[in-house]
Amino acid sequence: MDLLKLLLASQSSPALKQLASQFGVSEGDTKNALSGMVPALSQGLRKNASSQVGLDGLINALSKGNHQRYIDRPETLADASTEGNAILGHLLGSKDASRQVASNVAAKTGLDNGLLKKMLPVVAAMVMGTMGKQTAASGLTSAVSGRGDSAGILGMLSGLLDADKDGSVIDDVMKMAGKAMR
User: Which of 30, 87, 125, 160 could connect to 80 by a Cys-Cys bridge, CB 3.0–4.6 Å?
Assistant: First the structure.
């Protein structure tokens, strides 16, 4: 699953327009910010999902978090900062890591670092919203509630766990398991 492509899927994405409007930047600048932020958040998702506790937490958040409202009703992004900060805590682990992501994106895009620090939690909420929509579409909710099977869960997360993008998650999962056993 390429989260950035999903977020930028439509030139006229209402969520993208809302994000641009909310932070007073152009849609082009918003896309540039997303292009820098989403890969860092995806890396945090991969790292989090590499442990059983992290994977369980992610699945629970996706099945019960109602994050897709941020994509379905973009006006709710105005209230996403608090939840977005909690998401960042899970994905990046610290405020310093979040600040570093914002600083790196500022250096690459020329956008104001302070603006990007404020935007990052909202983008984190959008990422979870996008994943929430994907999980609902792929049947993750029924798999978690016991009405489906775990293959649906792994199918949805396979793109996320395929760190080297070779089309197979087996080698990546084995590497994660090997690191966990050390």
Answer: 125
For residue 116, what pLDDT band results from cuts at 50, 70 and 90? very high
Q: Does a structural domain hold residue 14?
A: yes
The residues, ordered by sequence, that sit 6+ positions from 151 with a Cβ below 8 Å of its Cβ are 143
pLDDT of the residue at 82: 93
- Segment 171-181 shows an average pLDDT of 46
- Decide: 141 and 151 in contact? Cβ < 8 Å: no
Answer yes or no: is pLDDT of 182 > 60: no
Residue 24 belongs to a domain: yes
CA distance readout (Å), 95 to 8, 78, 89: 26, 21, 7
Structure-block tokens of residue 43: 């890396």
Domain region containing 48: 3-138
